[in-house]
Amino acid sequence: MTAAAAGAARGGVAGRLSDLLWRRPSVLLALLLGPPLLWLGLVYLGSLGALLVQSFFSIDEFSGVIDRTPTLRTWGELLRPANLDIIARTVLMAALVTGASVVVAFPIAYYAARYARGRWKAAFYLGVMLPLWSSYLVKVYAWKLILAKEGIVGWGFESVGLGWLLEAFLSVPGIGGNSLSVSPTGTFLVFVHVWLPFMILPIQAALERVPGSLVEASADLGASPGRTFRHVLWPLALPGVVAGSIFTFSLTLGDYIIPQIIGTSARFIGLAVYQYQGTAGNVPLAAAFAVVPIAVMGLYLWGAKRMGAFDAM
Amino acid sequence: MRADRAPWWLGALAGGGLLFLHGPILLIFAYAFSTEDSSFTWPPPGLTLRWFGAAWERPDIWEALGLSLRVALVSTAVALVLGTLCAAAVARTRFFGREVVSLLVILPIALPGIITGIALRSAFNLADIPFSFWTIVLGHATFCVVVVHNNAVARFRRMSGSLIEASMDLGATYGQTLRHVILPNIATALLAGGMLAFALSFDEVIVTTFTAGNQATLPIWMLEELVRPRERPVTNVVAMVVVLVTALPILAAYHLTRGTDTVAGSGK
């Protein structure tokens, strides 16, 4: 459709401008895209660039002054065993949190997709949405109350006479600690709680597309519920699971507040980045460390794309 | 077709999962009324309303709240403009590099927040920009764009392009078409996106710690209290109020976009 077909041209400055834009959609497109691209390109990509540049600076170990001549020394420092430990610990935690989120999220998503109707459907939806959007810090704080030695979990175990069981669990090295709120188990629980809604939504979206008759057909043909799950439901839900895992994995990789407030003093990538740039003043090493989650996520996204996870988002 | 009944154990697992999601948040409410002022003792030894008054009289809380509200308002306004423009371009036309634009919009929220935070900080550092109100807004607006964008794109896609063509054929200018045709069609989607962006900014802490210098938004105030507790009962009260205040825009956004194919918030 051209302006000529629209009859007489519009009068006035606004009219002539409109005619120009109608005839040349590319000008309109440039006007629409200009401001957001300028902002995101300048502010966001510019900042990412600045970050990358800083990782090639180095710090003078004695004076603490940052030397701006390009070098690979900081990247070499990243490969020290202590730092590799941090990376391995973080990736392991992210994997465990992701696994647990899938297990907890699946029944909720399946129930909401297959059985919830009408008002219940809305209730399930808001039941996932409200925790997703409610304050992250408040959730972390709530867990501090729950996991404290005198908190509700300890009280629960004591009042049914199982206090000794909790003590025994906390004395296991590697997962226990003085109380749950300073144990790796505590860190793990809080991570699962905080990121769980990010897993439920994409799994539910994937399961909504599975017709109930498919599950019935599998049962009619004699498959046990376990086999139906393995051969029908799981493969169809997998793109949703992968999409959700992108969130749980990425968010765990970069978080520095949860391990700082609930957990041992063992460091995670996020905490290391935070401390290197803050108290230690070693911005180059912090910058190099920050590139690690970007690289890990890049690999992860590449794999996810190959599994078709983006159709489920 | 009538839905068949769920096996009891599936209902139990789903219910248990929802309890795990909501229980901890609801527990805060009980603690806000506890008379205990130094530990996290459960059950509360007694109930009181005293801490609400104590929180009311704390000037630092009011200051933090004020800063958070101002930051959220300005960031939401910037995000509304940028997100809508971007959505209009992406939804209505096909052009070279469209996928790249979509990716660029989503990136600030797909990458861990600490990356955005430290990247902004190193940029401020290299460019010698001092921390201010505007450095916080710069960060917040960047990750709020995606929320507005997602809501607006969904609405633009449902809106028929012939409406705009008809308006232009009838001699309207772009300004008139925008005011009388486009805006009324996308208004509720923008309102929902704006509210979600507001909630997102109001609650943000990870990026903010890197861009705030020594200013305290409400989440930063809370973080300080978590790391170095001063008056725990007051923190409980603030936590409860924050839960109630952020729930309102979420519920409102849900009602505004109900019944459309994409419901607000599903792409946080």
From TrEMBL, chain A:
Localization of this protein: Cell membrane
Membrane topology qualifier: Multi-pass membrane protein
Keyword Transport: yes
Pfam families in the cross-refs: BPD_transp_1
CDD domains: TM_PBP2 (cd06261)
Keyword set includes Transmembrane: yes
Keywords: Cell membrane, Membrane, Transmembrane, Transmembrane helix, Transport
Membrane-spanning ranges: 27-53, 86-111, 123-143, 155-176, 188-207, 232-249, 283-303
Main location: membrane
SUPFAM superfamilies referenced in this protein's UniProt entry, alphabetically: MetI-like
InterPro entries: MetI-like, MetI-like_sf
ABC transmembrane type-1 domain ranges (all copies): 87-301
Entry similarity comment: Belongs to the binding-protein-dependent transport system permease family. CysTW subfamily.
Name of this protein: ABC transporter permease
Species: Rubellimicrobium aerolatum
TrEMBL record, chain B:
Membrane topology: Multi-pass membrane protein
CDD domains found in the cross-reference section: TM_PBP2
UniProt-recorded name of the protein: ABC transporter permease
Domain of life: Bacteria
InterPro entries in the record: Bact_Polyamine_Transport, MetI-like, MetI-like_sf
Family: Belongs to the binding-protein-dependent transport system permease family. CysTW subfamily.
Gene3D superfamilies for this protein: MetI-like (1.10.3720.10)
